[in-house]
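Researcher: Here's my situation. A collaborator sent me these components and asked whether they could plausibly form a single complex. I don't have experimental data yet, so a predicted model of the whole assembly would be a useful starting point for our discussion.
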Amino acid sequence: MSVLVYINSNGEKIAKNAFEAVTYAKKLGEVTAVTNGKADDSMLAQLGKYGADKVLVDRSFEGIDEQQITKMVATAAEKVGANTIVFSNDLIGKAVAPRLSVKMNAGLVAGASGVPKEDGTVPVNVFSGKAFGFVKVNTDKKIIALLPNSIQVEETGGEASVEEFAGNAGDSRVKVKDTKLPEGDIPLPEAELVVSGGRGLKGPENWDLILDLAKELGAATACSRPVADSDWRPHHEHVGQTGVAIAPNLYIAAGISGAIQHLAGVNRSKVIVVINTDNEAPFFKAADYGVVGDAFEVLPKLTEAVKKFKASN
Amino acid sequence: MKILVCISKAPDTTTKISFTDGDTKFDESGVKYIVNPYDEWYALVRGLELKEAQGGSVTTVTVGTAEDEATIRKALAIGADDATRIDVKPEDASQVAAEIAHFAKEGGYDLVLLGKETIDYNGSQVGGMLAEHLDMPFISLAESLTIEGTTATLDKEIIGGVQTVEAELPLVVSCAKGMAEQRIPNMRGIMAARKKPLNVVPSSNAAKNTSFEKYALPAPKSAVKLIDPDNMDELVALLHNEAKVI
């Protein structure tokens, strides 16, 4: 079976969640990747390592305009005869996959958390991570948008051929006026490790405790809603029901009580560490590891312990 | 300016999730429904602010049964001018998007607003699907929206940052945090909402491209392992050797 996977190659490197999408597609059939922009052939060829046989690249446009990407992916699907299309369900996938599903009349499984079961249904997270659903696609063509960080990247060792093609993407109807990418930050939605702080940290002046640990771990930083609402930290760091929902391998929460709205944003984390002075804090019920103690004392000790661990490994 | 806001109901955040009929259906008994927060707090309120500043109208549209009317009335109480309910049970994003598109095509809306996702299925699908049906640009995860003449300027979340974009109306915009502040309906709004039009229109029998066959609850979490606050080396060792996450 021919499977097409869309890859964003507009950045300096291809992100890990793109490799996850290729790995996933490889489990379903023969993989062609499709992308656009100016990325070097050598950068695109590395998709072969994860199972892509071929990369189609439309060099005629750059960027991530959802209408242009939709048209290009539809053209590529027709060209290679793919009935299954895989996206990473990142911010681009969330904008493009629904559009494409209407254009191609292909049922969309948004936020797939694993490979299809024997009966063909695909698992997804529902109710903000409180349950799983198994989705059946009722159309001949299907689109699967894979939740970042839900499968392991697997290297199969090949090299992909890179072929230029015309994706007939048309013109963009959206003008980009400005792009702000805070330097050095690890994007939160795709981060594997996250260190998060709540009201228990008492004020923005104490955030070095979080930032130091995050830096030592190579983690992204996050915060609870009251922290973002008080402008101690930027809004894009707010995880929870009304902020960003994340699924990192490790979530360390300091000074966060664990209200249900907060848990809704983080309960798909693989491992949760909670640091709180209050041993009755509800977050401990959702945690794998807990430290009952003052974040002001525990965080520096944890940072020191991580430093020691990194030095000896 | 004619603004359409898509409103969906969702179970209250504190709802205990369970399933019936051999785990094939969400158990709705005793569930309290609210207006999906992203639709209410961000899409509806920003629509109202734009109308208040620049004139026009705010219509809400909901795909749902008579049971949804309490949440629709709440949207009217917050300030929408009128509401339409498309009379069919929403079971799939492709169905909902096609139903709304069928309705919206006739309306000549300048702006279609909706929340970035619902808090039950979290699919984030309807906005993009709707935009394709209506052949409009789709600005996803917008944190701000201003309109001058027929040009919209928006800040939208992108991977690792924020982008400022400009597009001509009509547009479909999915709204995220930052777009507006929650409004609590007052008594006058609640009284007025009773008299506002809530039109019920028949379904266009849109196809459902996907279906949920079964549900499952995650395995219960084992009890938290407590670590001595003076022994962070042990925590790091556990994260490395046992949890294998660092």
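Model: Some features of this prediction you could bring to your collaborator: Chain B touches chain A through 79 residues (CB under 8 Å). The radius of gyration of chain B is 21 Å.
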